[in-house]
From TrEMBL:
GO terms for molecular function: ATP binding. It comes from the Bacteria. It comes from Mariniblastus fucicola. This is Transcriptional regulatory protein ZraR. PROSITE patterns: SIGMA54_INTERACT_4. Gene3D superfamilies: 1.10.8.60, P-loop containing nucleotide triphosphate hydrolases. Residues 202-432 form the Sigma-54 factor interaction domain. SMART domains: AAA. Pfam families: Sigma54_activat. One of its GO terms (biological process) is regulation of DNA-templated transcription. Signal peptide: none annotated. CDD domains: AAA (cd00009).
Amino acid sequence: MSEVRKSEKRQLELFAELATCNPFLPRRMELEKQVLGSKFEEDGIAWSRRLEFTDRERFNVTRLTDAATELIDKVQQQVASGKTLSSESLKHYWYVVTYALLYRHIVYQDPASLRDPDSTAAIWKEFRSDYSRLVNLPGLSDEVAQSPGHLFAILCQIHRAFFNIYSFILGESLPSVELRGKVWQSIFTCDIDRYRRSLFDRMSGLTSLITGPSGTGKELVARAIGLSQFIPFDEKHSRLKAPDETSFFPLNLSAMSANLIESELFGHRKGAFTGAIVDRKGWLELCPAHGAIFLDELGELDLALQVKLLRVVQQRRFSRIGATKERNFCGKIIGATNRDLDEEMKSGRFREDLYYRLCADRIETPSLRQQLEHRPEDLYFLIRHIATGLVGDDSDSLCSQSMEWIEANLGSHYPWRGNFRELEQCVSSIMIRGEYVPGRSAKVDSSEQDDWTRDAIKTSLTADELLQRYCTWMYFQTGGYEAAARKLKIDRRTVKAKVDQAMLERLKTG
Ligand SMILES: Nc1ncnc2c1ncn2[C@@H]1O[C@H](COP(=O)(O)OP(=O)(O)OP(=O)(O)O)[C@@H](O)[C@H]1O
């Protein structure tokens, strides 16, 4: 017996890669193009960047779903007429089936409706019968094809994770795109096939550590990971096995005393300390298996509590304060810090053994400046998001007012030391007062600036050196030769000739 045609085998292979790749990384787009060939709509934005598709964007999504259906039909027909599939191609066929099921039944659902038992039951019914039809291929053993309930749970998780990552983490610059890609990996790893087979219910045992400057979205990343954990599906009752309770528990360690943190996390027994008048469950006990505890400002955790936390992370066991009974912790721990943990370990403020229990899954959030250096247009996009949050649909005028004010007063190289949080404050302040006064550290943080103004005051600069440095400073502030020339009231070419590239570089890197 001969195998199915080469062209179908190649399509199966391509589609399988598409169905299993990280949807946030550029490879996804390349694969979409390869699968659709000339049918790919070039000006359709990557599907993976939208939750609500415009008609134009829908082109590629719909065509890919149709292509998957067509491919499945062709392979089924060839197999029915006596052709065979190698074990490798059978595996690829299975991935195409999972792709088709995801797009035919789940992707257009509001993720919240998948938590509602009534709507889930209806979706599941259709999914189940489609599944039976598509999986009906000789040789597709149970080893390759997973049970419909398990697949349904995984596809719902994929949809939920995509929604969370996409809607929480904004920005189109490469650092933002890569950040979304990494968050996806923290949930599904870099091998989603292995995840589906054996890791889906083990990931909560692995901690995630998020580092990066203040105001760069570490809590958002933690939320995206924490709210996207695997929830099994109960086929008998046609619903996801998730209690309705909260599943993300954020704890800001810098804002609480060591005693309070301990009591919040571990809970206590009645009489364990003054004020413990009743037994109380802590978050380690309340957190469900698909939930997460977020320990913000982890670098500030008291050393004695670090020892206790190490035990939870290592053995997944804990007891309430004042109790001897041991309990299991089933959720996930996510930590974040803006401190340099290497430095903290060197100075003995952070335990090495705890660090080495936390560092397998580490994510670094990029600063706003890194994002804007890569893609200055993001400033407008982020301001629009903030302005919409402040004034709703009437955000156009605040958006342009903010852009104009920032351009005229801060310039395009402004360092945004407070990151996204500072940008939020800046737009709010422009809305209230028509201006923004940067904090001292953001305004005069460049030692380079101190150097040249100090030299000028000390009268140790020649007129030409002074002009050179002043032109460079103005260019740095305004972001363009034209704008700098206008402010200095000199010719643009003079500014261009005077800008000192080495000084400019030092200014940019702070
Ligand atoms: N990439 C981003 N996309 C959308 N919003 C963001 C992003 N980064 C930060 N923000 C917003 O900036 C504010 C601060 O974010 P968040 O609290 O997550 O930062 P953080 O890094 O945890 O800060 P800190 O270290 O001070 O706790 C929030 O309002 C958040 O919504």
